[in-house]
Amino acid sequence: MPRLLLCAAAACCWLSLCGQEGGSAVPLFNRTEPGRCKPVAELERDFERLSDKARPYTYWFWMNGNITKEGITKDLEAMHRIGVGGVFNLEGGTGIPKGPVTYLSGEWSELKAHAVAEAARLGIDYVMHNCPGWSSSGGPWITPEYSMQKLTWSEIELTGGAEADTLLPQPPTVQGYYRDVAVLAFPSFENGKPVAFSDWKRLNNSVFNHDGRIGIQEYDRQQVIDPATVVDLSGNLTSEGRLSWRVPQGRWTVIRLGHTSTGQRNCAAPDTGVGLECDKFSKEAIRLHFNKMMDRLYPLIEPYVDKIRIGLEIDSWEVGMQNWTAGFEDEFLRRAGYDPICFLPAMTGKIVGDRERTERFLWDVRRVQADLLADNYYGEFRRLCNRYGLISYCEPYDRGPMEELQIGARVDGVMGEFWNGLSAIFQNNLMMRRTTKLASSIAHTNGQRIVGAEAFTSEPESGRWQEYPFALKAVGDKAFTEGINRMVVHRYAMQPHPTAAPAMTLGPWGIHFDRTNTWWEPARAWMDYLNRCQTVLQEGLFVADFAYFIGEEVVGYTDVHRKDLTPVPPEGYDYDLMNSETLLRRARVENGRMVLPDGMSYRALVLQGRSRMTLGVLKKLDEMVAGGLTLIGPRPEHSLGLAAYSPENEASFVRLCDRLWGTGTGPVVDRRIGAGRVLSGMKMEEAVDRLELGPDFEVVSNPGNVPVRYIHRRIGEADAYFVSNQRRSAGEVVCRFRVGDKVPEFWNPVTGEVASAVMYRADGEYVSVPVQLEEYGSVFVVFRPGKPRKVLTAVLRDGSVVADASASGTGEEGRTLCPDVRDDFSVALWVKPESDVMLNTDNPMGYIPHPWTEYYAIYPSGGAALYGEGHATCGVAVGRNGVAVWENEKGYPEFRLAAERPLSGWTHLCLVYEGGVPSVYIDGVLAARGEKSRRSVHPGLNAATLAEGASYYNGDMTRPVLIRRAMDAREIGRMRARGFAPEETGRALDWMSSGNAWLVWLEGDYVTVESDGTRRRVPVRNIGRPVGLDGAWSVRFPAGSGAPGRITLPELGSLHRHSQEGVRYFSGTAEYTKEFTVDASLLGDGRLFWLDLGRVEVMAEVEVNGVNKGILWTRPYRVDVTDALKPGRNTLTVRVTNQWTNRLIGDEQLPEENDYVPGGGGYGLAALSRGAIRSLPEWYRNGEEKPAGGRIAFATWKHYRKDSPLLESGLIGPVRLVPARRMKVPE
């Protein structure tokens, strides 16, 4: 018999606000333990000598069955040599032909066992993806029953007053799988067939709610189902789908609801590993999948579980939406506390009861879905891993039915990702750019010590073997400042062949971090740098002033970036994100701060204007404010959920809001309640003023407008700030640190040197420190408790200030504005781009209101904000494939014009506006002309500010020159013919290198100023002039490189301009040798000599008289050679390594040897498929040497064409011996 469903709107309390099985139990390997951290003296030793525990990892892709035992050993030994400490071993396909090894076969198992054994031998941690490919958990063993599920339904209308015996149409199915959920009937609408309310698919998680809508905007008010009239006919349905029912009078709509597979398959898997994704709401499904993998894997890895850290990973969510699972209605009853059946029509786009109750029910649905995903997928995954002694990892984001902070808390190790620029294909990379700060917030608020990142991932156009360590440094440093403390470099393609190069690729994707890359061996210096950074950043606790509450809406992406938070936190105040689960279960108030169990604490909790909140969270806030919490943000307007929706609870909600925010009508609230305080209706700048809270970090003097990023960690009694320059221009700044009376030191992560800072100014709780930052430079400023002592506050040379710890300014000086220049002007500069640029705004990804790109050489700031409505500024993005012109009126750049033209080496660029019409001249030749702008356009002359959020041009350029008129082609040609000279940026002295023995480059009368005002004169004489190592150099090339064995260069210059093809197209390491004479009178007497290599493309290893002086991979390419010089004849050897690019282009001049998909070397979407090799050559498959003759290199993807532009390469100089002296200063 049918049962009439009388659904109570408030049956009981919400049983599981954030999942009954939630929490964030973290194994000891990744737990931040209260009060436990490495002593700073021990940390300093690890920093100087490197730490095995802080080594970076890499993604190691086995490509579609192309795997050999020899290749495995060679790969892992190569990683070990340069300091890689772990692998994330994934199986991929992505356009690579099928190899001989079948996934999960006996041969595959033997190779996997060998890999784990070799990793254990070498001390390399081993993490595997939990399924073939990289997302998410699936394979051929997943049947439709255990696959991801979605709700499906069919509808018919019946006329009452008779017995119905009818076959209900089966709802649409996928994979031939269907199971009934319920059959419901309700009186049909008087005005016709049902019309779904707005955004119903987003609100029930049929599609991703990308813009975070949480309410029903439009619906037909004549189409409302009374829940009291809903009849459950599920018991009247036969197994054949026939409905037997005596239909009451009137017209009735009958809905047959069921669930079917979404049909989603795992992403980018090898051919034999492709299959359905498992059901993410079902423990049974993930267990089935996990056990299928472990039955094969665990016997292979069990002997090594106690020797190295072994883990499994779930990569980013790339499998679409899921909104149902078998038994969902029972889980809903258990978790939400009421039967959902009568409200299920709301999931098909129908209003049930009224709009309010429908919205509340759908929130309950999304909450249960998110909790099931967190508990039954991610939580169960962790539990299964830990049972086997394995570590669970995940990337907790992308377009899924999730609360991102919740799922990240369920695993042992959370990860983000960051990309190496461009975004010509992945315009939704804006979402991915959130993930480093997202992951670190999850870790900080859940006691996870290590925060990993899929690091330096690249689209084809920003990879292609163009990348190298220095070019990657700034984007990596930025990730460090966002909380990442373990780089997992993306990517290393498993090289099955012993000698072929560059050989195997991950299809078109990623940077080429492989042993076959030209710069692999010298990259150990880069790995040392990452190790030192991670050594410090993995210790202690992150320091943040604010926790930003993400709300409870369970829709869309989490807002993460500073500019997206409400109210916006000012620069200098760091923050974490926090969800309701952490707030309810882990947070308490202590001494006026919100404190978490591992010691993390925050000065205030910021609500972000969340208009809806559960009563449980509101009660927690009331309790915490009474205990001393400072709460910032507006009063919530509505409660959430249907379970607790009752007059009594709504009255309680209002009473609590009145107690916290008061009952006044004014916009500003500043109330003290108990020991706490509530602030609302103001910007954060006013809030911090009221709290008398100064910034934790501030750049108080910045004459060069250096874009400085930072992060602060407290390590026991010490404080460590990582400070990074994001631009390729050196600068000197004064930074102000909120550390009290501690004493600063400089820890150099490039060299491992630690030096006392003897010039700074202490002022109450602040210490101001002058800091020198090289191009893309970085330093740790570490503060330890120490006795007050006399220090220097300034230094002068010949009466002019060199450095002053008391200096102050706006923090952003040097920006150029041109209010009186518009529509008719020219901007000229020289550029040397190092990767491609986006030349159109075609975007296949969707959801992007304003197309964007990376790496503007000149950033167009918002014209309306600078000059008024109707005004824009212009800027350019420059790449090796051309130039793009952008304009910005309203705060976001808009694409205006592209000039597709290959740029090789230093190139003259002139942007001309004439009557508002833009034109681009490249090397004096008109390359493109656009159409008249609809706005008044002013010249842009600046790089982006930090607040504008753009990244910084990844290449070299001269300072833009403004000409206040439109130049013609002849004038531009004459300007280009004059050439350019690199700007000299010499310093008088370096005060950060050796404590109280400063390095002085320029002679003069120096005066030091001590903190008590005492001035001491320190004359520095007899330094001498730099000695140029001009003239001829001998250059030796390795055998088999296509270059001659040895050449003599009459003078240094880029090899890509050499007349010999073998030299012009050379890729690899060339050995430059020069003999020179040093007069005995120059040595000794305290004089130092530094070797300055000038321009290097791209890495150099220096040897003087047989003494190795190390690898130079960052600018300036300079090293102290004093101890290696001798009177008389000296021999200098410089081994310079460039990229693969030139050789690959050189090979394109030769006959083709393999079959590739035509069109390789293109841009945009074409780069994802064109250029793939169709079959691997026999010699490669057999592990034989490449046949002699013909092409030099071999690669499985064609990234270049015959006419692709070459890169500058080699030692370009000028090479000089630069003398210096030490200047003793008080310490």
Q: Helical stretch count? A: 21
**Shape descriptor:** globular
What average pLDDT do the residues reach?
Answer: 94
Task: Classify the secondary structure makeup into a structural class.
Answer: alpha+beta
Distance between the termini: 92 Å
Reading side by side through the largest sheet, how are the strands ordered? 2-3-4-14-16-17-18-19
Helix content: 10-25%
Stretches where pLDDT is under 50 for at least 5 consecutive residues are 1-28
How does this structure look, described?
This protein has 1227 residues and is α+β, with helices and mostly antiparallel strands. Helix content is 18%, strand content 30%. The chain contains 21 helices and 71 strands. It has an eight-stranded parallel beta barrel with strand order 2-3-4-14-16-17-18-19, surrounded by four helices. Strands 21-34-35-41-37-38 form a six-stranded antiparallel sheet. Strand 37 and strand 38 (754-756) form a beta hairpin. Helix 1 packs antiparallel against helix 12 and helix 14 packs parallel to helix 15 (647-661). The radius of gyration is 32 Å and the shape is globular. It starts with a strand and ends with a strand.
Write the layout of secondary structure elements.
Layout lengths: L2 E2 L35 H10 L7 E7 L5 H14 L3 E7 L13 H17 L2 E5 L8 E2 L9 E11 L2 E6 L11 E9 L12 H4 L20 E2 L5 E2 L9 E6 L3 E11 L14 E2 L5 H19 L8 E5 L13 H9 L14 E2 L2 H33 L3 E4 L9 H5 L4 E7 L9 H4 L2 H11 L5 E7 L11 H13 L4 E8 L8 E2 L20 H14 L3 E2 L3 E4 L25 E4 L1 H6 L2 E3 L2 E3 L5 E2 L1 E3 L5 E2 L1 H12 L3 E3 L5 E2 L7 H15 L7 E5 L2 E5 L3 H8 L5 E5 L6 E8 L2 E8 L5 E8 L3 E6 L6 E3 L4 E3 L2 E8 L4 E8 L6 E6 L2 E5 L20 E9 L22 E3 L4 H5 L3 E9 L2 E7 L4 E8 L6 E8 L2 E6 L2 E5 L6 E4 L15 E3 L3 E3 L5 H9 L11 E2 L6 E4 L3 E7 L4 E6 L6 E2 L4 E4 L9 E4 L11 H4 ...
Parallel strand pairs: 2-3, 2-19, 3-4, 4-14, 9-15, 14-16, 16-17, 17-18, 18-19, 20-69, 22-23, 22-27, 27-29, 28-30, 29-32, 46-52
Antiparallel strand pairs: 1-10, 5-13, 6-12, 7-11, 8-10, 8-12, 21-34, 24-25, 25-26, 31-32, 33-36, 34-35, 35-41, 36-40, 37-38, 37-41, 39-40, 42-43, 42-57, 44-49, 44-53, 44-54, 45-46, 46-47, 47-48, 49-50, 50-51, 55-56, 56-71, 57-58, 59-71, 60-61, 60-62, 62-68, 63-67, 63-71, 64-70, 65-66, 65-68
